[in-house]
UniProtKB/TrEMBL annotation:
PROSITE patterns: HELICASE_ATP_BIND_1. Initiates the restart of stalled replication forks, which reloads the replicative helicase on sites other than the origin of replication. Recognizes and binds to abandoned replication forks and remodels them to uncover a helicase loading site. Promotes assembly of the primosome at these replication forks. It catalyses: Couples ATP hydrolysis with the unwinding of duplex DNA by translocating in the 3'-5' direction; ATP + H2O = ADP + phosphate + H(+). This is Replication restart protein PriA. It comes from Rhizobium paknamense. Residues 215-381 form the Helicase ATP-binding domain.
Amino acid sequence: MKQDSHDLFSPASPARSVPVLVPMPAATPYSYSLPDGMVAPPGSVVQVPLGPRKVVGVVWDGGENAVDARKLRPVEKIFDCPPLDPSMRRFIDWVASYTLSPPGLVARMALRAPAAFDPEPMVEGLRFCGHEPDKLTPARRKVLEMAADGLSWTKSGLAHAAGVSTSVIDGMVKQGVFEQVFLPPPPLVAPPDPDYAPHRLAGRQMDAAEIAVDAVKARDFSVALIDGVTGSGKTEVYFEAIAECLRQGRQALILLPEIALTTAFLDRFHERFGAKPAEWHSDLATRTREKVWRQAATGEIRVVAGARSALFLPFENLGLIIVDEEHDPAFKQEDRVFYNARDMAVVRGRLAKVPVVLVSATPSVESQVNSQQGRYTRIHLPTRFADAAMPDLHLIDMRRHPPERGGFLSPVLLRAVGKTIERQQQALLFLNRRGYAPLTLCRVCGHRFQCPQCSSWLVEHRFRGQIQCHQCGYAEPTPQACPECGTLDHLVACGPGVERIAEEVERHFPDARTLVLSSDLGGVKRLRLELEAVARGEADIVIGTQLVAKGHNFPLMTLVGIVDADVGLANGDPRAAERTFQLLSQVTGRAGRTGLKSHGLLQTYQPQHPVMQAIVSGDADAFYEREIVEREKAILPPFGRLVSIIVSADSRAEAETHARQLRQAAPQASGISILGPAEAPLAMIRGRHRFRLLVHGRRGSDMQGFVRAMLDNGPKERRSIQVQVDVDPQSF
Ligand code: ADP
Ligand code: ZN
């Protein structure tokens, strides 16, 4: 031992260097020297200088570097936090190479909790010294009774538990009854108890749970897909898998698409396990995020329910990953590192050797195919729990039941709303369009209000008196006069948004309590409160965007009206049918979850469309079968592979030229071809012109190798040009 430390500090010891992954878009780790005596195994979280800054990085694998370590800048500090384990490091490498992103940017996602790397400060506490105070008042006796267990207390905790004021305790400290000690900070959340309040599972649920529990028992990688209609008890089933994971003393991660809004989920978890899971999403206070990061790393936190980025938390002992609503587009990050958390969850599971459970009422076509081909175990729940009826779904053919002039709601739908609120039940009108109207134009000259920096229309938000761009956030007060011809008061709103539907509803039902739920009408806190109010029955008619679609349980909601079921079908995207099917199933699934007879009415101009037919017939299998056949024919994902490359620049010509040169730099590869460059679906965003190349390959093609070669051989990167690579794009 002595010998070792002597060697370490000996001036003769050679200078050593380590590779450190810094949170920068660099292709490889940078080398830093290690000061004598500093030990920094791979995974250590360190502070290093980078230019004029100090950054947090991770010591990477690869060992000593050939560079003369004496010329390097030194690692300044090793943080006192658990190192990122090898499977986490392989995960970061894997995500980087799959998404064609610099590993440092992926590592940055794993290190997004700046102050978490130093231990939390100890808190001041009290310990009973074993002797009584001089004068034993009743208040002091109560304190002694509480403190008799020999544990340490915080002052306020003890005062609260004994029901006395803190001054009583101050007096006892003065007399030496308690001594001041320092205690580790309390855990953020209490540990969940796997046996707190389990439900008795119904027959099919039992079989389903057994498969999921066995997967956890195997302590190895596997993927299961729980595919069951809304209300079939999927959540109950995966709670059993979580319980098993907790019994093993391991940690579980639940990924949810809209965790910030789903307080109902947290409450339900609490009822089942006697404690809440830790939350992880971007609306958390920084201090809380840091605590979650650290306590996930130390293992104190047992269950995290989080948005996609929770996948990059450094769990100490992960035993299970759940991806609920696995089909949801919100799992795709389209910023810097473009990744789909559902797919990367499967990768993380494989590298960490833990089971992954995907859950959805309307699985992605990808997951359907994987389960059909036997790569995923299918756990099927075809009926609602306790045989609660699914809502009765009907199409309203808008060609035969047109709304009155200037309106958007057919008389059939309005009658149904009226009946529902007469019964003191709730109606939901769903329209996935924020604001008042998607387009405003001048009736005199035809001028359309367009964003000055994007190729998109300005959307009128009447509640706020503005017209806004949904791409870049640009907003201006709603003008009175047309900027083109100057005519006053001749601007017309075209098409409906939720605010406009609310206006129509209020005209027909002036006495009803109407509520608009839309993400632009309040922060997360306000939306949470409003969703809870709806669940308590404190609104009669709710008009909402897709934020009402996810995971909520509204016991009195017995009518769901889809204002425009065709919205998503128009854009020519081959995934449009799948998305529309999923969204409509999910929204209509909000109805009747507690056994009340319920209805769904879908307004459509295309009642014969396969999506509409699939929804009303409830025949999801037929829909998927058709969809899968078509994808296979066209060699679209998952039967083929796509990478989208978007080149943007301030000038249109520069963007187009760069994209063309990129295309010319592509290698020859059989089975891979390139479409474009063509103007991207949004040709301009924030003043930058965008051109797109779409790389298409047969299954099994080395898409990453191909694109990497293209980028390496392609035109030199210039500051003015930005190239975004999106492997497995959402829309294509
Ligand atoms: P899903 O996740 O498939 O939408 P849930 O797990 O939310 O379905 O179940 C639907 C409803 O049925 C919930 O209110 C849930 O509490 C209830 N439920 C499901 N399974 C059981 C069970 N075994 N015992 C009691 N209630 C159950
Ligand atoms: Zn804009």
